[in-house]
Design a protein that fits this description.
By secondary structure, the chain is of the alpha+beta class. It is 62% helix and 10% strand. It has 9 helices and 4 strands, in the order αααββαααββααα. The protein is elongated and about 130 Å long.
Length: 457
């Protein structure tokens, strides 16, 4: 069984995260979380990685997350435009005259103008707005990565569920075939007077029960297939699975001493950090908005009756304007308080995200370890059920055992076979859950890279 533990240094890091001691700032370098697609090849199947890649490329939720990122990028460009002067040009053509009067007072007037306007960022308000937009853009990027990670994990779990239900359906059908074969045996014994009508009715009941179970599992399998198509953004299409059994898959290895600092790669934590950095910048911008603003402007204008004389005597203007807020009904103060309260909310969200990440990882690790233990015991249970079933049929044929014992052995064997398929499916899905909890695939190289990146920060 794989040994799973967190190193003391990693646990210390997790404690700091849980305590919320390391509050990120707007100046923190952006992280780019990655999801290790090659991790899916650890199942030993080419179909599963292909399905996950198809979901990653075609699911509408991923497209929506990409669109939100483009919106945030546009907002960042809008905020960045404040660092540059605003330049505008004007053109004007007028004709004036007196109705019914002297035509000499009539005339044409043409004018061209060029105006420039620039706000001096005295208190850092514009810079804070740009920082906020940049952090929001990073948050959107991490949100997209979180959506992709959830899609990949969900798609992998759905694929394993569909395969597991197909295998359980096949087990139920084999059990039905076996029950029908034994029914023929009981019928033959009944015709020979060696089996009672009660025994015949009991075996027929077993056949009917197995037929119902097989039909139920088949319906559940079809529903799982339909859900798989939905992951691809399609409706009603068939998703083929050539592999026949969960037993043909491998279990992705979980390295001993898997470091808890891999949790730092989770995009939801990074998104919470970026959102908190944006809130910090919003608070700074709201505070700076309460101070005066300095605006510089320049203009160049020319006018004349004809285009050829427009630039004979151009006029320029230069101005500086200082505007200080005096009374606005408390609007600016309310904006500042709103930004501060929003920051407190996001700080709480950041702490909650770290708690959730650590909880998810521990839960997934516990599930992996517990299911491994259960599978060892279940393998022994299945082996003994198969042996009991063989002995019961042999003794029944020889007349040394009652049908009741054989019926009980049939039920026990089917339950053990079905439990094995369910446990294996749960173990494989627990590996997917651990993949999701740790922010993607892992390896010794990924762990070392994560530790180095955090040390650099």
């Amino acid at each position: 069984m794989t040994r799973l533990f967190f190193s003391p240094a990693a646990l210390a890091l997790a404690a700091l995260l849980l305590a919320g001691c390391a509050t990120p700032s707007a100046d923190a370098p952006a992280r780019t979380p990655t999801v290790a697609d090659p991790w899916w090849t650890g199942f030993g199947s080419t179909e599963l990685p292909a399905f996950v890649a198809a979901v990653d490329a075609g699911n509408p939720d991923g497209d929506a997350a990409e669109a939100r990122l483009r919106q945030a990028e546009a907002q960042e460009r809008i905020a960045g435009a404040s660092a540059w002067p605003a330049l505008s040009a004007t053109a004007d053509v007028q004709r004036q005259g007196r109705l019914g009067g002297d035509a000499n007072v009539s005339g044409n007037r043409r004018a061209l103008g060029l105006d420039a306007r620039y706000e001096v960022d005295l208190w850092g308000r514009l810079r804070a707005q740009r920082d906020s937009a940049g952090a929001s853009r990073r948050a959107s990027a991490f949100d997209r990565d979180a959506v992709r990670l959830a899609l990949r994990a969900g798609a992998g779990a759905a694929w394993l569920e569909a395969l597991g239900l197909r295998e359980r359906t096949a087990i139920a059908r084999r059990s039905l075939d076996d029950a029908e074969r034994l029914l023929q045996l009981v019928e033959a014994r009944a015709r020979a007077g060696a089996a009672s009508p009660l025994e015949l009715a009991q075996q027929r009941g077993i056949v009917a029960s197995q037929r119902r179970t097989a039909a139920t599992l088949h319906q559940q399998s079809r529903a799982a297939d339909i859900r798989m198509a939905r992951w691809l953004g399609q409706a009603g299409s068939e998703v083929p699975i050539a592999i026949a059994s969960l037993q043909q898959l491998a279990l992705p290895s979980v390295e001993a001493g898997l470091p808890a600092d891999l949790l730092a790669r989770r995009p939801d934590i990074a998104r919470a950090e970026a959102a908190l950095a944006a809130a910090d910048a919003d608070v700074a911008a709201a505070r700076a908005a309460m101070f005066p603003t300095l605006t510089l402007s320049a203009g160049l204008a020319a006018a004349g009756p004809r285009f050829g004389t427009l630039f004979d005597h151009p006029v320029y203007s230069l101005a500086a304007a200082l505007a200080a807020p005096i009374f606005d009904g408390g609007r600016r103060a309310a904006v500042r308080d709103l930004s501060a309260a929003r920051r407190e909310e996001l700080l709480a969200n950041y702490r909650a995200a770290t708690v959730a990440a650590f909880t998810d990882a521990l839960t997934a690790l516990e599930a992996v370890a517990a299911l491994d233990t259960q599978r060892v015991a279940q393998d022994e249970e299945l082996a003994q059920a198969e042996r009991a079933r063989t002995l019961a049929e042999s003794r029944y044929r020889a007349g040394a055992e009652t049908l009741l014992t054989l019926l009980d052995a049939q039920r026990t064997l089917f339950a053990a076979q079905d439990a094995r398929a369910q446990l294996l499916q749960a173990r494989l899905q627990a590996g997917v859950a651990l993949y999701h909890a740790l922010g993607g695939g892992w390896s010794a190289e990924a762990a070392a890279s994560t530790r180095l990146s955090r040390t650099a920060r």
